[in-house]
Design brief:
The protein is of the alpha/beta class and 510 residues long. The protein has 16 helices and 13 strands. It has helices spanning 37-40, 46-57, 59-73, 76-84, 114-125, 160-177, 198-214, 225-228, 264-284, 306-327, 352-366, 377-394, 409-432, 439-447, 458-468, 500-509; strands at 7-9, 13-15, 25-28, 89-95, 129-136, 183-187, 219-223, 241-246, 288-292, 330-333, 337-338, 345-346, 455-456. The chain has an 8-stranded parallel beta barrel with strand order 3-4-5-6-7-8-9-10. Strands 11-12-13 form a 3-stranded mixed sheet. The protein has a two-stranded antiparallel ribbon with strand order 1-2. α6 links the parallel β5 (129-136) and β6 (183-187).
């Protein structure tokens, strides 16, 4: 039973109604009410795919398929699984399109709450808190695909009408879940990216007041700027508010900054990356939430060295989790389910989904069309390398930087030509795979995403189980990460060897 609504108290703590500290550790329900190309297997953006489905299937079959997909994706079985790992929270990303029609702005679609309500209720039955996350806002709050932005232009910051609609939406959400003790709070805007900073700060001032007028009790979970990595523009903190970093590490991705080998300089980089992001929270003594992190994983059919490279990424993840446990922060790994990229569970090769779409997913990978988890090394020498050099040669150095600053020039080129333009050509081809499907066949395809039909990523889930309830004073941490002013134990164990503590934790949860 929940003991009342969670709140921020005593500086950097979250407590329940009894004043007992609660540390939220969980996962995000990515690829669900905000579908993403690399997670679900389609090219481009969700809004484009849904439009293509309506054209191929017709409105009735299209609506049926997506409703069944949402239903099967998360059920009691999924909540029970998360609880068995010791996880106590679920971040629930959703797309505004479920709750408002662009052709009827400001009018809330009440039926759009059907699956959000269902997941909140399921999680409550299993003692799991939910954090409601607006992952896609009208106009796009960032330049990228993960807010369902098909253009690369974040119009949300330039048009007040888009911001007005989000304020109206959050007032409705706050009224709906006001008083619900299993809702841990509201994440008003995922990964905002405002080049000018001032517009984000003004919007946070506005949304904080608007939500508090309706629901003064629930925690606000506010992301940093530029994909939740930059807090340099923040100068104050709101009461009863948690601030969120997203702590993805380049060692967890192919062809980014190299492979993780456990070298001291690599560990120093991982630690410095985290410390930079959380400096604001520590300065102001407020809670830290790592709302997203996690590597991607190699697959046997694409990479003969997949076992070795995946072990390296688990080692990197163990290093990150050890920092988070030693710091006692809240976290939500990305993500729960996908097509075998980075999820805790994935759709296997013998599922109806992959048996139908496998050839297209492979083609999409070979074209390196997705903006995330891409590997374009095989296309660099003869195709993209010359194109990137052509841009660099013709754009003077003083003009070569544009927002988001973290993207080098070739990343901006990549997202425009491949992630947007090429994807637009591929969307009809993807939708045609569903042409002529019966209701029964569509149901079977959607059911591929059910708990029973997905496969657990065992090593990932074991690591999450170990750290789900770990506290800063846990003796296990001494052998994993150097503590402040304390030398590392000479008896450091390997990441994959279960300690007596882990064995006892497994037995307790069995």
């Amino acid at each position: 039973m929940a003991t009342g609504i969670l709140r921020v108290a005593d500086g950097a703590k979250i407590v329940d109604a009894n004043g007992d500290q609660v540390i939220l550790r969980g996962v995000a329900l990515g690829g669900w009410m905000m579908m993403e190309n690399f997670m679900n297997g389609f090219p481009g953006r969700e809004m484009q795919v849904r439009k293509a489905f309506r054209k191929v299937l017709g409105p009735e079959k299209s609506a049926f398929f997506f409703d069944k997909f949402l239903e099967y994706f998360f059920t009691d079985d999924d909540a029970a699984f998360l609880k068995s790992l010791g996880l106590n929270s679920l971040r629930v990303p959703f797309n505004y399109h479920h709750l408002e029609d662009d052709m009827n702005p400001g009018v809330i679609i009440q039926d759009g709450f059907k699956h959000i309500d269902r997941v909140v209720e399921i999680c409550a039955r299993h003692g799991i808190y939910t954090i409601l996350d607006l992952h896609s806002a009208p106009g796009g709050q960032s330049q990228d695909w993960h807010c369902d932005n098909p253009t690369g232009y974040a119009a949300f910051w330039d048009q007040k009408s888009f911001q007005d609609r989000v304020v109206n939406l959050w007032k409705t959400i706050a009224a709906r879940y006001r008083g619900n003790p299993w809702v841990a709070g509201y994440n008003p805007l995922n990964e905002p990216a405002d080049e000018e900073w001032t517009r984000l700060l003004s919007f946070y001032d506005r949304i904080e007041r608007a939500i508090r007028e309706i629901d003064p009790d629930h925690i606000l979970w506010l992301d940093g700027n530029t994909f939740s990595m930059d807090f340099s523009g923040f100068t104050k903190v709101f009461p009863n508010t948690v601030y969120a970093i997203h702590d993805y590490c380049g060692y967890g991705f192919p062809n980014r900054i190299g492979r993780y080998q456990g070298k001291p300089e690599q560990d120093k980089y991982i630690r410095a990356m985290y410390d930079r992001k959380v400096e604001f929270m520590k300065t102001h003594n407020v809670p830290i939430w790592n709302g997203e992190f996690g590597p991607i994983y190699e697959r046997e059919e694409y990479n003969p060295d997949y076992k070795v490279q995946n072990k390296e990424r688990y080692n990197m993840l163990e290093k990150q989790l050890s920092i988070y446990s030693a710091e006692g922060i809240h976290w939500s790994i990305w993500a729960y389910k996908d097509i075998n990229v980075m999820g805790m569970r994935y759709v296997p090769s013998d599922s109806a989904w992959i048996m139908l779409l496998g050839p297209f997913i492979r083609k999409k990978r070979e074209l390196a069309v997705d903006s995330w988890a891409y590997d374009d090394a095989h296309l660099q020498e003869g195709l993209f390398g010359p194109l990137h050099r052509w841009f660099e040669e013709n754009v003077p150095e003083k003009y070569s930087k544009k927002y988001p600053w973290q993207w080098r020039m070739h990343m901006h080129v990549f997202r425009g030509i491949r992630g947007i333009t090429l994807a637009e050509y591929l969307i009809p081809e993807f939708a045609d795979y569903f042409s002529g499907k019966t209701f029964e066949e569509l149901d079977e395809l959607a059911r591929s995403w059910s708990f029973a039909n997905t496969v657990g990523r065992d090593e990932l889930n074991r690591l999450l189980m170990v750290h789900a309830t770990m506290k800063p004073d846990d003796p296990h941490l001494v052998s994993v990460i150097p503590r402040a002013n304390k030398p590392q134990s000479n008896g450091s164990r390997g990441v994959f060897e279960l300690s007596p503590l882990e064995l006892s934790m497994q037995k307790a949860r069995a």
